[in-house]
Specification:
The chain is α/β, with parallel strands linked by helices and about 325 residues long. It is built from 12 helices and 10 strands. The termini are far apart. It holds the Pfam family HMGL-like.
Length: about 325
């Protein structure tokens, strides 16, 4: 089995209240992430500014330019800004829930259909790879979603991005949604983590037929963020045995370098990365670990370049005495 991981630290991660990077740091991070073997990197928004476009041009013309994809609103002006950057792949985001269509845009569903029928042929006429992002698909009417899937397939889109914009999907709903969408075209998922379900939903999406998973380092993004890159990659590759194309030890190094670079504060129990991620404390756990790492660790931490650790306290008195002998 193979899954394609698409990273958006350099776009969605920059929308986190915890992160600000200079363009030079963003360039550095692009090349570091590229060195892991990751499939694709969503690097920014060309329509944002001339400086943003210059930065994107630099990346698009580099030796890893084939990994670059850029984010656009569904309008011709945004696409033209992307064309200036010499990119080969575009993401077009369009609202699909009535909340977004009516309350944000003050439009109706017919407007969305007309817009897609205008924008997709224009992008494809430029011989670009196109991913169409369904914003807030988790709160959209399912019959309307199916109509839009039929529309974008007929117009020539290469894949659809299913965006759980406010993080309200659960794994059962994810399974149903992805199975439906993947019967039309290739599926990418972009899941927010407002209720702590982004990783579980992303794994479920892959198991349900999604070919692409969008994620960011540490899960950085708006509000509570999105699927953490390290979690989804390590789980799929080390637990499920799925080929991601990513060097997990290199990724672990980069995550820790990124933490040092940004001075982001992490909870000690942050999965895989927090200081307690591979630490056990109770006597039962310590006793098991002295016999085999497989007893109380999901995988050997040395696989990613880390180490198992022990802590001692109220429920580890016997183990403490044993370790001191």
């Amino acid at each position: 089995m193979r899954v394609f991981i698409t990273d958006t630290t350099l776009r969605k991660g920059m929308q986190s209240a915890s992160l600000e990077l200079t363009y030079e740091k963003r360039k550095e991070l692009f090349f570091l992430l590229s060195s892991t073997g990751i499939h694709e990197l969503e690097v920014g928004v060309p329509a944002h500014s001339e400086e943003e476009r210059d930065y994107i041009k630099y990346l698009a013309r580099s030796q890893h330019g084939d990994k670059v994809i850029v984010w656009n609103r569904a309008n011709i002006r945004d696409v033209e800004a992307s064309l200036e950057c010499s990119v080969k792949k575009l993401e077009i985001a369009i609202p699909v829930s009535d909340f977004m269509i009516k309350e944000k845009l003050n439009k109706d569903r017919d407007y969305i259909v007309r817009l897609l029928k205008e924008i997709i042929p224009y992008v494809k006429s430029k011989k670009l790879y196109l991913s169409v992002g369904f914003e807030d698909v988790s709160r959209a009417d399912r019959e309307f979603v199916i109509k839009l899937l039929e529309c974008i397939r007929e117009e020539g889109a290469d894949r659809v991005r299913l965006s759980d914009t406010v993080g309200v999907l659960n794994p059962l709903q994810t399974n149903e949604l992805v199975k439906t969408a993947s019967s039309f075209l290739d599926v990418e998922v972009h899941f927010h983590n407002d209720f702590g379900m982004a990783t579980a939903n992303s794994i479920t999406a892959f198991l349900s037929g999604a070919k692409y998973i969008n994620a960011s380092l540490l899960g950085l993004g708006e509000r509570c963020g999105i699927t953490p890159l390290e979690e989804v990659v390590f789980y799929l590759q080390l637990i499920q045995g799925v080929h991601t194309g990513i060097n997990v030890k290199r990724l672990y190094e980069i995550v820790n370098y990124f933490i040092d670079m940004t001075n982001i504060h992490l909870a000690p129990n942050k999965p895989l990365i927090g200081k307690n991620a591979f630490t056990n404390k109770s006597s039962i756990h310590i006793d098991g670990l002295t016999k085999s790492k497989r007893t109380y660790l999901p995988f050997d931490p040395e696989v990613v370049g880390s180490k198992a650790a022990l802590a001692f306290g109220l429920y580890s008195e016997k183990a403490n005495k044993l370790c001191k002998k």
